[in-house]
Amino acid sequence: MSEENVIQLDLGTTAQKTTAAEKLPVVLLALDQGKYDMPRSLDELRALADANGMQAVAEVVQKRQTPEAATLLGEGKVAEARLVCQNVHAAAAIFDGELTGSQIRNLSAALQVEVLDRTLLILEIFRARATTNEGKLQTELATLRYQLPRLQGLGESMSRQGGGGGGGGGARRGAGETKLELDRRHLHHRIEHLEEKLKELEKRRGETRRARQKNNVPVVALVGYTNVGKSSLLNALCGEQIFEADMLFATLDPTARKLTLPSGLQIILVDTVGFVSRLPHHLVEAFRSTLEEAAFADVIIKVADAGDEQASEQLAVTDEVLSGLDCGNIPQLVVYNKCDTANLSSFDPDILLTSAKTGRGLPELLAKLDDVLAHRVRTLELVLPYDKLALADILRSRGSVTAEEYREDGVFYRATVKIDDLHRFEPFLV
Questions:
Q1: Pairwise CA distance, residues 235 & 148, whole Å
Q2: Model pLDDT for residues 363-410, shown as the tens digit of each residue
Q3: pLDDT band at 287, cuts 50/70/90?
Q4: Quick one: residue 338, left, alpha or beta (phi over 0 = left, psi -120 to 50 = alpha)?
Q5: Mean model confidence pLDDT for the chain
Q6: pLDDT at 210
Q7: Is residue 202 predicted with pLDDT exceeding 50?
Q8: Sign of CA pseudo-dihedral 419, 421, 427, 429
Q9: pTM over 0.70, yes/no
Q10: CATH class belonging to 217-372
């Protein structure tokens, strides 16, 4: 592959999306210690690579209880992986797990290709997808925290961006202790700066939440595994067109839209970043401000892919992340989306089947939300005297009116109002 077709990564690897239409060929590496479902994990890694403009053309997996300290894989398996990379003309190798800086350096030297780990791949996808200022800051912060303990291992490749080596063989002979310390100091300063900026944004977000609470607007959060159709559901329910695509992490930044339920209750529906299995803890922490929309929600809708055989595992990943956010006391609904792609007949009655594409199950979902939030509204009949019609504006703006009739003594209304507003209308009930 020609050099001009490659966009260089900030972290020193050339294994990024090409400017041309073709995808970069990569080899997947994994160490199977029997701790998790390896085929499932590799399928997910393959999807992550695809989301980053790469194509997994081969995989090398070793079953081994004790990892090799320098490379995780044994010497023989590393030699096999090198031959595979040569035979398929791989641009990079991606390890299904997290590597230290020295392990990245050792594997890259042994395989003669650039090496990424699972975390770095996810970070690169995040970097490409973040659209809001906060999302970009969070991604940069997570990247720098990833870099910091790996400086010594990644130093030679990073030096290509520092203007010192200009890339090539000379840059790979080592950055030197002074350069290492300068890099470390620079990263510490930048991390502190980003943390301060994110604190400011967190303060603003808190003010927004308090405004929502003051106006008594319930918040419903869509959470779940990446690529289960949360954005499609949001679009189908709210009629707003936000970006959706059949790929992992199509949505990174939280998106909030207003939605009126059949009862007339207005809610805020929030789409959050998707989860993946074995998402590193520091990545969860970096995007905690995004994910905590769920922690402050009145209702959580957990979305899974009905057409995926691992739907229950997807929900388990979702529950794991939510438990870390202390969401145990928040009402939760389970939704199996994309039911149009699956041959489904009967399910647990507590599970809702939906299709954002065909509209199936959406009325039932809205009705269920009304049931869960029923304590927030009350349907009543009242007559407002003509000198009290200013209250009708509250009926319409903070509730919904289903019937209206002009009478001699005033205007009759059948309406749904919020419990917090009930005291305003009690004198006029009929």
A1: 39
A2: 999 999 999 988 877 888 999 999 999 888 888 877 778 889 999 999
A3: low
A4: left
A5: 79
A6: 67
A7: yes
A8: negative
A9: no
A10: alpha beta
* Distance between CA atoms of residues 127 and 140, nearest Å: 7
Listed by start position, the domains of the chain span: 3-129, 131-215, 217-372, 376-428
Q: Residue 290 in contact with residue 272, Cβ under 8 Å?
A: yes
> Hey, how many other C-beta atoms are within 10 angstroms of the C-beta on 72?
23
* Backbone Cα Rg of the chain: 26
Binned at pLDDT 50, 70 and 90, residue 104 comes out as very high
Any idea which of 23-27, 246-250, 354-358 has the lowest mean pLDDT? 246-250
Average pLDDT in the 141-153 region?
82
Q: Where does 3-129 sit in CATH, by number?
A: 3.40.50.11060
- Residue 301 makes CB contacts below 8 A (sequence gap 6+) with 220, 221, 222, 223, 332, 333, 335, 365
- Cβ atoms of residues 121 and 247 within 8 Å: no
Q: What is the CATH number of domain 376-428?
A: 3.30.70
Decide if 3-129 and 217-372 have a common fold: yes
